[in-house]
Amino acid sequence: MELAQAQRSRTISRHGGRILADALVTQGIDHVFEVPGESFLDTLDGLYAVRERLQLITCRFEAGAVNMAEAFGKLTGRPAAAMVTRGPGACHGAIGVHIAMQDSTPLLLFVGQIPTGQRDRDAFQEIDYRRMFGPVAKWVTEIDHANRIPEIVAHAVDVAMSGRPGPVVIALPEDMQRQTAEVPDIGRAPVALPLPDPAALARLSGLLARARKPLAVVGGSCWSEAGRTAIHAFLTRHELPVAVAFRRQSLYDGMLDNFVGDLGVGADPALLAKVKEADLVLAIGTRLGEAVTQGYTLFEAAGGVPIVHIHPDVTEIGRVFRPTLGIVSDLNAFAAAAALLAPPRIGWHAWTHELRALREAGRMVPYYPGPLNLGQAMRDLEALLEPAAIVTTDAGNFATWAPRFINFSEGQRYIGPCNGAMGYAVPAAVAAKIAFPDRMVIAMVGDGGFLMTGQEIATAFHHGVAPIVLVFNNQMYGTIRMHQERHFPGRVSGTGLTNPDFARLAEAFGGYGEVVTETAGFAPAFCRAVDSGRPAVIELVSNPEQITTRATIAELRAAAKVARRRPRIRRPAAAERGGKKKR
Predict the structure, then answer these.
(1) What SS3 class is residue 391?
(2) 69 with 205: CB under 8 angstroms?
(3) First vs last Cα of the chain: how many Å apart?
(4) pLDDT at 578 over 60
(5) What is the value of pTM for the model shown?
């Protein structure tokens, strides 16, 4: 049947733009996020022909468009496509490619390209995309002939989804899109995923039987619902304490008694201390990157604490930390196999209970100076989130409030840029609401990040969706100011901001806006935003002095001064060390 359909499609002459549109539909791509450009007019025409099967999302900035596609991939586990024009459009969109690469998210980016006959002349907006995107994409290619479009798009999807998922960049020369060809569409290939070695699973069981203080760290991408259910079954049956990797709260139910927190920027120091006591670490899906391992200091690279590293890409296992056992497997396949393992006689009940108690103690809201206690606001938000709510976050110090004080439940999702890119949360929230229009969607963003891509609220209006944006306004680039105070206390340079009235800005778009200055005002304001049914911005006027959830600016300055006053240990001369002086 499929062969007969392919034979029929071969007899139909189509231009390259239409062939590309049909190839996307055939590969199961049903959303394209784009900022239009004259370099892919024929492709836009092709997308018009498939508008009943593929939704075209018109965005306001290329970085926003690619971030939307990346967020779509994070939430669904399958790639969306982004399209940008040549030169400046590609440069603007590059940040989304970097996010997808570091966050292991499947993504397709199509870039309009100059005509093939103008190459290497420094033509208008010409860029060598292979050189530009090579270091930050899994594969970069250019389609020179229209009859190769189905082949290359099919392979691009395979590359984006296989092993460690990631982005693929495809350049589309203008003249190639205008070419006509009679070529069949190519369907998706059923590929058997790598399964965990039964001998490795048996060894894993043996390591667990000898452990007294094990810890599971769950990360990675493209988890299916069945895989999530299976990994939960494995971890709960074994009563293992579970931490999630940086910004991977969506992977584990924070309400469960064995959830102990997150490892990453702003992690609880008490949890980090306990991680160093662990006698077995199960790294499930996570790459054990810089953020998770606190600058590669949490474990010994040569192997100290036994690590079992499970990852679909063999090149990631042992990349920094040499494991006791490496298991190359599709994560969902590993979860299904691990769920069948019989737990040993568990000797770490008290250890799991201790780590969970630390998590709950860290969620107790302390006194914070100022009328708006963001810790309490986050606890109030936890109670207001719907069971299937999606929360997107930007990068910045403000982003540590939610992970510290909110336990996200099983049906909820919390996503953000693991590579620390600002300007992510608002586009991601728009994409989330487009993908899941019936779910509550909230974006959390700082005042700095909002003015990078906050204009994508216009995209929400254009496509009839209503996310709620929480803007944490402390009138500074807070993360940089924090580091500034640690290294150059009191010498504030380049980190202050002057902001608009964010609530009125939302109203100018036609949305709902409100400013919250006191703790008691947050929950009612949030409910009014929900009830408005419009895209909404709630500005949270934060105390600039409270630079993190755990420190004030005054405390950072005091600590920096103490560190500077500490006497340096004088290294003894060679004679004092018993060595000989050189003559």
Answers:
(1) strand
(2) no
(3) 90
(4) no
(5) 0.92
Amino acid at 169: V
Q: Distance between CA 60 and CA 62 in Å, rounded? A: 7
Q: How far apart are CA 3 and CA 5, in angstroms?
A: 5
Q: Is 503 exposed, middle or buried (0-12, 13-18, 19+ CB in 10 A)?
A: buried
**Angle, alpha carbons 492-497-499 (nearest 5°):** 160
Amino acid occupying residue 495: T
Q: Give the list of residues 6+ apart from residue 305 with CB closer than 8 angstroms, or none.
A: 278, 279, 280, 281, 299
Q: Over the stretch 301-340, which tens digit does the pLDDT of each residue have? A: 887 899 999 999 999 999 999 999 999 999 999 999 999 9
Q: Which domains occur in the chain, in start order?
A: 2-181 (3.40.50.970), 198-362 (3.40.50.1220), 374-565 (3.40.50.970)
**Position 23, amino acid:** A
Q: Which helix (H) or strand (E) holds 268?
A: none
Give residues with Cβ within 8 angstroms of 237, minimum separation 6: 339, 343
Q: Return the structure tokens found at 475.
A: 């009138």
Per the CB < 8 A criterion, the answer to whether 220 and 292 are in contact is no
Could you tell me how many residues make up the chain?
A: 583
- pLDDT tens for 404-428 read 999 999 999 999 999 889 999 999 9
Tell me, letter by letter, the H, E, C secondary structure of 291-357.
CCCCCCCCCCCCCCCCEEEEECCHHHCCCCCCCCEEEECCHHHHHHHHCCCCCCCCCCHHHHHHHHH
Rounded to the nearest 10 degrees, the angle between the axes of helix 478-487 and helix 553-565 is 30
Amino acid (1-letter code) at residue 552: T
Distance of CA 450 to the CA centre of its chain: 17
| Exposure b/e, 245-278, CB count within 10 A at least 16 = b | bbbbbbbbbbebebbbbbbbbbbbeebeebbeeb
